Amino acid sequence: YVLTQPPSVSVAPGKTARITCGGNKIGGKTVHWYQQKPGQAPVLVIYYDKDRPSGIPERFSGSNSGNTATLTISRVEAGDEADYYCQVWDSNSDNIFGGGTKLTVL
Amino acid sequence: QVQLQESGPGLVKTSQTLSLTCTVSGDSITSGSYFWSWIRQPAGKGLEWIGRGRVYGSGSTDYNPSLKSRVTVAVDTSANQFSLKLTSVTAADTAVYFCAREGGYWYFDIWGRGTLVTVSS
Predict the structure, then answer these.
(1) Nearest to A89 among B48, B64, B105 (CB)
(2) What tens digit of pLDDT does each residue of B20-67 get?
(3) Is the N end or the C end of chain A the one with fewer CB atoms within 10 Å?
(4) Residue B75 C-alpha, separation from nearest chain A C-alpha, in angstroms
């Protein structure tokens, strides 16, 4: 099973960023999202497609349908600049990560 | 607050065995229905799940199919630790290795800070 993410997404401060994660019938799977800043470990920002762990701002939201899952970051801030990874569990491959998307805040 | 910390050699010779330990602090490794996983990240590249160990279910394990023949994950409840062994390493195994707690439906909610392992002759 393969997850496809765009290598990069750019957005101006205060605007909305959308990072996609494509996979065959991914809407039938459960998607999780991680944020990773340089030199740091990944941090879980969305689990079960759309749930936020405690401490994650409401600006972060997720959706999943058809062949695409999407991480949406509203009112983007400079501190949101990071790499973002989607992840699913697949019965054949076990845990799979997308290739990652670098979010640049202009 | 649960914390994870990786430890082990930062340099391993080609063809030898990479061995890392993850120490769990702040709670017992037997608390809750969690799995204990290893994930790695080569420099400038993405994340790759390596494998997991369970406390329950007879301590069973699961591995990334691409690494299965070389990987062993073990959980030591008496030490509140879990470990990774990767045999016959090559330069392609050079990466930052993270340990992580896996909960719920296969998500990683707590991560260690990661440790760089370089494979060189």
Answers:
(1) B105
(2) 999 999 999 998 889 999 999 999 999 999 999 998 877 789 999 999
(3) C
(4) 19
